[in-house]
């Protein structure tokens, strides 16, 4: 990544008015030229802010050589000339600071009074104006407390990934917008240089209700966003919510868009208390029973072939859907008039109950993934069932954890890292991800921000294809050398997710380095392949002479078989080519399921008689296998069979 730099410079000539973009600006002790040099006041001298009079944010100013030209909805333009100002200074109060401010002109007051529907006056921070904020020696004009405020573009992107709605920089009104840095990199900057000016960064910018006002309409968000989302992960010990950082210029000089930022000093990032009180373990059950409808609220393009879909229930709240970090969500869609089922691991976290999120990689020929990428839009809905699966944080001790993933296998790791960060777990985490190229790195900025907030999380990547000369992390497929560099490797609980070849290689490498097999936890993606399948003999029946259990026979010709769903009192004339779950559903039965991939065990049934071809059994314990249990989603009847709930 190239050096952080200035992407945009914004000034707000009247306090709480809309911003203006500048290509460059002079900096003095009061901040940027033209920034918040005007303020509106009531007749009693108390300033007026957009927090209470939201229409102010719709006033657009244009800077001229002699003053300003103002426009506002339903109003004729107002021309303001410095030469027409009165020479009357009057005390104006901004928060707890009293300022001797220059009254502009009575005719201007009438324009603002008509627009806001109340008596008000316009004041200017003139040559004889002075204001010192208590407990600080620096001067400010009509800004709240500090001359300037900055936010990085990556920090806003991080917020938008978490929030059910998209927000713009205009919601937060920064003076400087930063690019080419990781999310919340500004949290650790103590002194920086931009252009000709050095700045101190004394404290984070605490946010108020004004951030919930839509800068295009002047209407407050009905659900208090983005403030509520920020509270979930950016709340300080005193209860304030921080987003952005305040700046104090140490000298005068010029800055411009494109200027690089030199970090001269650093300090520790602020301590966020959200989740300091450890949450109770999330129960694996859910308040939502059966199927429920989810509506798409937002779509995020993560990479060229990966999208995240943010979903909320059509009825009730997402908090009604309890799940554990790492579990998956079974969904159903109607594609070309046909109901199609799929399962995606949740990349959201149960610690952030405002929404559910699935992150979907486009798979060539994949019916569901391509439909979601090409046809599924904001406002569309899908059917879902309760999240499930045994691959989750509460399945193991998490004092020392390695999250090891490849490709779209990163999704449960995102959920787990969010949960551990939000709960402020005092644990040791290593996040290691393999991708093809830098362009294929999913949520890289978000992972960096989460690791920063966690405080004890190391992040590493390896690229399996060629990398740019600036790439400084690993290259190539996962090796024992890479894993051996992880501190306390064999003391960690290792969670692995990715393609089968990656999982198998990772397991071999980890075990060869001394990791106990009990510390290896894995999740697989996609439906099981119909190769190398295991034929289970009829219970109590010995294997055929010369064959061992699990050895597949040559494929048989398609034929009809009888399937007795004994516990459901249903006889089905089926076939030897489709899983039992599919055939039962086609016959009108409501059978339990979740992942439909042989992983979670939700569709467990007992084989009372007959033989099946078993495609996967990860969701079963060894004891359950011995007792004759099978997974209906992953077993194809080879003969007439009888199954029960057991």
From TrEMBL:
The keyword Iron-sulfur applies. InterPro entries: 2Fe-2S_ferredoxin-like_sf, 2Fe-2S_ferredoxin-type, 2Fe2S_fd_BS, Beta-grasp_dom_sf, Cbr1-like_FAD-bd_dom, FAD-bd_FR_type, FNR_nucleotide-bd, MoCF_Sase_C. Its cofactor is [2Fe-2S] cluster; FAD. Residues 543-555 have a biased composition (Low complexity). CDD domains: fer2 (cd00207), FNR_iron_sulfur_binding_1 (cd06215). Residues 559-646 form the 2Fe-2S ferredoxin-type domain. Residues 528-556 are annotated as: Disordered. Keywords: 2Fe-2S, FAD, Flavoprotein, Iron, Iron-sulfur, Metal-binding, Oxidoreductase, Ubiquinone. Residues 120-264 form the MOSC domain. Residues 289-394 form the FAD-binding FR-type domain. SUPFAM superfamilies: 2Fe-2S ferredoxin-like, Ferredoxin reductase-like, C-terminal NADP-linked domain, MOSC N-terminal domain-like, PK beta-barrel domain-like, Riboflavin synthase domain-like. The keyword Lipid biosynthesis does not apply. It holds the Pfam family Fer2. One of its GO terms (molecular function) is 2 iron, 2 sulfur cluster binding. PANTHER family: NADH OXIDOREDUCTASE HCR. In the N-terminal section; belongs to the FAD-binding oxidoreductase type 6 family. This is MOSC domain-containing protein. It comes from Thalassomonas actiniarum.
